Amino acid sequence: RRVCSAGSPSGRSAHAESHVQPLYQPYLTTCQGQRLCSTYRTIYRVAYRQRYRQVPEPMASCCPGWSRANGHTLGCNRAVCWEPCQNGGSCAFPGRCSCPPGWMGRACQTDVDECASQSHGCSQLCINTAGSFHCACRDGFSLAADDKGCQPLVPPPGTDTSSQAGPSSEMKEEMKDLRSRVEALEQKLQLVLAPFHNLMLPEDVGADPISRLSHSLQQLDRIDSLSEQISFLEERLETCKCLEKQ
Disulfide bonds, which pairs (predicted)? Predict the structure, then answer.
């Protein structure tokens, strides 16, 4: 497989070969005239000799980009990559690497940005890393058990969560009542401070200027106290609104 040319060069192979070898054995016999004659006879025996013969040996030449896994195989099944594969890749085709997940390129040298596509599965944030990625959550959330979803942070036991529900109707009514009382006190103060007017003052306030001044100072104290309460309630209202937006 993937062999571009093949040949069969010959090689010498030695082996032992058996053959019948004739032997000439001399002996004496009686000839004519009662004379002794010397002659011979032929006998045969099995002998062995070394013979050499030409034996064809297979030879293969691999196609460009392929090589043999070892010298004992004829097929060329190992691909050759001129640039070494990086990041755990393996040479699968001549000049091309097979990359593990998270890497791409001819030599597996380029990181795959999993966060650029929508296949990462993160519910909120995706953070790309070398050869991989991981999910993260925004403030106020924690990563779920599947390492992809996000769930709201659970407040510790004993935390007052009533302020997160927004201002209640009772708080709004209280603020409205306090504003009305402040407006009424301001109107009374203007009446008290009006010089030389015949004003409708409370029964316990005398008509002399000292009594009027004392009464006006008391009204100012009450206004300051109510104003502080309104400011405190407004701050609570703003805090509730911020939590509701988050």
Answer: 81-91, 99-108
Q: Which H, E and C letters describe 61-102, residue by residue?
A: EECCCEECCCCCCCCCCEECCCCCCCCCCEEEECCEEECCCC
* Structure token pair of residue 121: 């599965």
163 three-class SS: helix
Domain match, 121 and 103 both: no
For 69-119, the pLDDT digits (tens) are: 776 667 788 899 988 999 999 999 888 899 999 999 989 999 999 898 878
Q: Residue type for 128, please?
A: N
Beta-bridge partners for 194 = none
Q: The pTM is what? A: 0.40
pLDDT at 149 over 80: yes
Number of domains the chain contains: 3
Q: For residue 243, give the DSSP letter.
A: H
Query: Quick one: 25 and 54 in the same domain?
Result: yes
Q: Determine the Cα–Cα distance for residues 246 and 230; give it in Å rounded to an integer.
A: 25
Name the phi and psi angles at 225, rounded to 5: -65, -45
